[in-house]
Amino acid sequence: MQDLEQPVMNLTTSDKQTLIKNWAEGYKSQLNEYNYEIENIEGEIPHELEGTIFRNGPGKFEVNGQKFGHIFDGDGMICRIAFSQGKAYFQNSYVRTEGYLAEKKAGKILYRGFGTQKPGGFLANIFDIKFKNAANTNVLHWGDKLLAMWEGGKPHQLNPQTLETIGLDDLNGLLDPNKSFSAHPKIIDDVLVNFGVQGITNQQLVIWELDKNGNKLKEKSFPMEGFAFLHDMLITPNYYIFIQHPFKIGALPFLFGFQSIEQCFGFDKNKPAKIIVISRHEDNQMNIIEGDSFFGFHHGNAWEKDDHIYFQSCCSDVYPQMTQENSDMSKIAYDKFPTSNLYQFKVSLTSPKVTREKLDNRGCEFPCVHPNWVGKENRYIYMNVTDNNNGGGPLQNIIKLDLTGEATQVWNPSPTAFAGEPIFVPHPEKNGEDDGWLVSLVYDSSTNKSYLAILSAQDINQVVAKLHLSHHIPHGFHGTWTSKAFI
Predict the structure, then answer these.
(1) pLDDT tens across 182-211, in order?
(2) Model confidence pLDDT, tens digit, residues 50-79
(3) How far, CA to CA in Å, does 380 sit from each of 55, 400, 432?
(4) Which residue, 185, 177, 180, is CA-closest to 200?
(5) Is residue 106 part of a domain?
(6) What is the Cα–Cα distance from 271 to 281, expressed in whole angstroms?
(7) In which domain, by residue range, is 65 found?
(8) Residue 125: left (phi > 0), alpha (psi -120 to 50), or beta?
(9) Residue 61 falls inside a structural domain
(10) Cα distance between residue 46 and residue 465, in whole Å
(11) pTM over 0.90
(12) Is residue 228 domain-resident?
């Protein structure tokens, strides 16, 4: 093992385009699949760290030179880093979805996607509303199943030992052919809570609760007024919380093949966002509280206190829309691109009132808390942030935000490296809110390789170990930790 003692580098650059170009290099496809013990380790893996990190994200962004129109349409690739007795083992594998196999065989794009049109103009796309299930957004080990998740359909089950794709999973009959299972479940008190939205204009919200064996505890269904682009949710002991942003959709250009579904989104910043609060225990009890307009892909944590619900969300003024024509990530103009900042919301349970407060000026995404604090008032929240203390740019650093204002910390991997979503791994022998580690898959453009960073959750500038891979892994989305070591 190598000596880990080295200074933490602070990014200072006058050339924003160089920074964006370096970041965009992380969207190059990784077509190879690997399986090996990680031997290039700086520092030392904690002996208490026993289990497996699973992480999902698009692994390739084109088919035989034909580029997908949005990173959301890239084929899902699962990465697994297993820890056992101070050693680590890496494996990655594509989810063998129906679409992945068909396009690989055909050597061309066969499906429309969130932001992708099939080549050939509107005649090739007209009345084709079948999306490819990319299985690329999240991954979860639950009920002895490993599930690759995509919010527009069913999850795919994989063998956690080999990463072999088993196939679409209806979760023991929970999902009929028309039901989707979101990629953003929440776990509270050993219960998995998730949702799905059916339809485009006449929509239905379905919420499920599953026990630790994957058996259904609850199922609730609610009609949605207007178009609801629900990507994430929040949970407390007594409530489900959803944010319905002020979207509308013009479906005809999509149906007639002229535009992707994402290009048909309209965001009206002059209309309010709706905070939807649904009782977990009472039937058909749903309250809608209107507040200032905003958009947010990802939310942090929520809790109840003194007849109010508090929660955190990464908020921008408008939706960050892209099109197939401007999907080159190296050309994003961050001076004009919407920036998300972390806000804390306060929602009254006794009157239709909601207020919010900005918690930090850095651009941010992918917030998380200690798993045992989900649904409880948290002091700390961890997330990716930009290096710019007051504005946008590529996500590069990790922040530990102390909501008391006392001890906020920021870890910068280097001027050329970009940290992925932080995943909180609890210490198995300690119970404090910041007892444990943050793990993040980091892409370094200077080497075109990736490494897994293990940071102390108490002091994130204490880099416990860096596990260097022999190749790069593209920027991804979400991951999860299980205390079972799959080797």
Answers:
(1) 999 999 999 999 999 987 767 899 999 999
(2) 999 999 999 999 999 999 999 999 999 999
(3) 23, 6, 11
(4) 180
(5) yes
(6) 31
(7) 33-183
(8) alpha
(9) yes
(10) 9
(11) yes
(12) no
